[in-house]
Amino acid sequence: MSNISHTGRDVSGHTARDLSGHPDAEEMRARHNRVMSGGRTTAGADAPLFLAGLFAAVSPWVLHFTANQPSLVVHNVVIGIAIALLALCFTAMPERMTGMSMGIVALGAWLIVSPWIVGQSPDMGVILTNVIVGGLTVVLGATCAGLSIMNKKKKA
After folding, report:
1. Which residues contact 134 (CB under 8 A, 6 or more apart)?
2. Contacts 24+ apart (CB under 8 A), 86-93
3. How many C-beta atoms lie closer than 10 Å to residue 134's C-beta?
4. CB-based burial of residue 148 (10 Å sphere; 0-12 exposed, 13-18 middle, 19+ buried)?
5. How far, in Å, CA of 52 to CA of 47, rounded?
6. What string of DSSP letters covers 39-108?
7. pLDDT tens, 22-38?
8. Do residues 129 and 155 lie in contact, with contact meaning Cβ atoms separated by under 8 Å?
9. pLDDT by residue (tens digit) across 91-148?
10. How many other CB atoms are there within 10 angstroms of residue 110's CB atom?
């Protein structure tokens, strides 16, 4: 507020509401048109995917298998954080993450089979959690991939 004079102009001479000279005006206008056009968006799948990744990361402490499955603890933390980070990246720039959404699907499939490969005779709670979270990750990752592919075809 200190750089605006009593005339409503800032130091550069622009009025407070004039953005026409802004260097990113065209990009902001295009983004606004994209958002307001009502096109298919991946926002409905990104947030649940992020939460599924976070749950996979904290599941060893929620299900209390930190003592009897140490290798599966590290595995779930790393895979869960990877899923959550990829979901965040997909939220930030979905048009560039189409290929990585198939990576999310692969991480979900790996999460499904990992109790038997990484774990040492896991109990039913560990198996069910990894299968459910992995299944959700596969479905949501495939949804993100499909929607982003449809959006690419729509733009072309």
Report:
1. 56, 108, 109, 110, 111, 112, 113, 114
2. 86/53, 87/46, 87/47, 87/49, 87/50, 87/53, 88/50, 90/42, 90/46, 90/49, 90/144, 90/148, 91/42, 91/43, 91/46, 91/47, 91/50
3. 23
4. buried
5. 9
6. ---SHHHHHHHHHHHHHHHHHHHHTT-TTT-HHHHHHHHHHHHHHHHHHHHHHH-GGG-HHHHHHHHHHH
7. 778 788 877 777 666 55
8. no
9. 777 767 777 878 899 999 999 999 999 988 888 988 999 999 999 999 998 888 887 7
10. 17
Closest CA to 57 of 73, 71, 69: 73
Q: Cα dist. 72→34, 62, 103, 128, 133 in Å?
A: 42, 13, 20, 14, 14
On whether the CB atoms of residues 57 and 77 are closer than 8 A, the answer is yes
Both structure tokens of 67: 């003592």
